[in-house]
Amino acid sequence: MFLKTMALPLLMAAGAQSASAATTDPLRFDAGNFTRQSLTMPDGEVIDYKAYEGIFYVTNVEDSTYQTLNIYVPERMAQLERVPILMRTYVGGYAASTAKSPSPADATGRALKEGYVVCIPGSRGNNSTIERDGKTIYTGTAPRGLLDLKAAVRYLRHNDALIPGDSEMIFTDGTSAGGAMSSLLGATGNAREYEPMLKAMGAADARDDVFAAICYCPITDLNHADMEYEWLYGCTNTGVRHLDEAQIRISQELAAECPAYIDSLGLLDAEGNAVNSSNYKEYLKGFLIESAHRALQEGCEIPDSIGFTFYQDKSGPMGGAPRRGQAAGKGARPDGATMADGREAPSFGPGNAPRFNKSSDFVTGLDLDRYLAYVASVTPLKTPPAFDQMGVLIPTPSPENKVFANEQGEAANFTDFSLRHRLDDPTARLDADMVKRVELMNPMNFIGTDRSDVSRHWFIRHGAKDRDTSFLVPINLATRLRNTGHDVNFALPWNRPHSGDYNLDDLFSWIALTIRK
Question: Which of 181, 242, 261, 418 has its CA 20 to 30 A from that of 128?
Fold first, then answer.
């Protein structure tokens, strides 16, 4: 049995650019059409900037509420040969997002403070609608939201000579579903599959690859996210999670499908060793231990109740005895440190934490099941399936089911697993149109191929207690990028829940370093 979905139609022609430019180039940036605004930062500093707002980035505008962008140019530009452009999307839950103003609380305000240009595009999403011929039409079904953001990138490139800042140095930034969109922008640059749809929208005839992608807790790899979630968190099913028998059955079935997917990725660790389903949890533990390492170095206290094992060297007050418990001081593994039995202390380096050299305490191990139970106790886990949930055990669609809906807003399954269970038909399969739409919304399908121009630089963060998707999702993304030669700064920040644009000093230090590479 096959699920029928509606193919993407051509978009209706609508508004255009300002009248002053429309006669020659409807997508020409009007450098004289701005207002002067200011932003007060948390430290009291006032940032003055020019605001160019309400700019249509396509000529065939289907939804004028969302298909605009704003550009903000600081009065004091950075004294750089190439000034970067931070393109921040506020997409959340795969919903529509309007073009917003800079905020002193996130990367947009900090970018203006640094003298960078800021672009904030709107985009359609799973809740955007228009009225057409007396009917409500849903305009944001996949991959339209991504197409809008790609069109915004093309607008910046098309007007590179007119817009301050360098369109060859676009940094995209987003959180959650916005992090997924940032990862897609980074992974799908100039991919030919999107070209007919972008042309139909009236996007500029320009490139849409970006220089760097900043991805906070990206909710991506949607067609594998359910199995990854259950494979990781299945250890909590009868404890913290308290699933019923039907939920446990679905969880186990999904988890059983995950090893084959992990093995199909062909991942390698930092030393070139294969990462597969048999050793993946040890690989994950390395990132979590590294996160705890940095937390200790920064003065955090980590209780022994959440699964970590600590060690204090012979110069410490415990005389080298291994211990569990709260860290008595700052630190991580000192270079060349040894265990009490003479073995070299382990080095944890699959991520980007600094090499510490002033320490007496460091982490020697982690009971992963115990730690995952801690994560689940902080914020209740999603019930299975976590993402493609519609019709499996409950009728309610998830935000992801809605983003793969048709124009009538009828949500749809996007995995064969959930479709089979919803229809109680072991032969049920998604139709070719849905398979293609799902493919276009997964960055993993483009990295390491010749289908697109993938960003060279990546900044990926996922909180160490963020349970909104499995740790496998960001780790797989970061690892595949590294394995294919990309520059990746990745970490699981300690005790951080589902959130974004934090530790801005770290982020902007990375940006400053990256633009000089």
Answer: 418
Q: What are phi and psi of 441, to 5 degrees?
A: -105, 15
| Dist. CA 354–CA 328, nearest whole Å | 20
Is 0.90 surpassed by the pTM of this model? no
Could you read off the pLDDT of 79-117 as tens digits, one per residue?
A: 999 999 999 999 999 999 999 999 999 999 999 999 999
- Reported as type and span, the H/E element at residue 147 is helix 144-158
Residues in Cβ contact with 56 at an 8 Å cutoff, skipping those fewer than 6 apart: 15, 16, 17, 64, 67, 68
Would you say how long the chain is, in residues?
Answer: 517
Phi, psi of 132, deg, nearest 5: -140, 120
* Secondary structure element (H or E) that encloses residue 156, with its range: helix 144-158
d(CA 105, CA 370): 34
How large is the greatest C-alpha to C-alpha distance in the chain, in angstroms? Answer: 80
State what percent of residues in the chain have pLDDT above 90: 82
48 membership: H or E segment, kind and range: strand 46-56
**Under a CB-based contact definition with an 8 Å cutoff, are residues 172 and 218 in contact?**
no
Token digits of residue 390: 């519609």
Report how far residue 509's alpha carbon sits from residue 493's, in angstroms, rounded to the nearest whole number: 16
| CA angle, 102 then 103 then 107, to 5° | 90
Reported as a single tens digit per residue, the pLDDT across 166-219 is: 999 999 999 999 999 999 999 999 999 999 999 999 999 999 999 999 999 999
**H-helix or E-strand spanning residue 268:** strand 267-268
CB of 318 within 8 A of CB of 297?
no
Structure-block tokens of residue 172: 């995209």
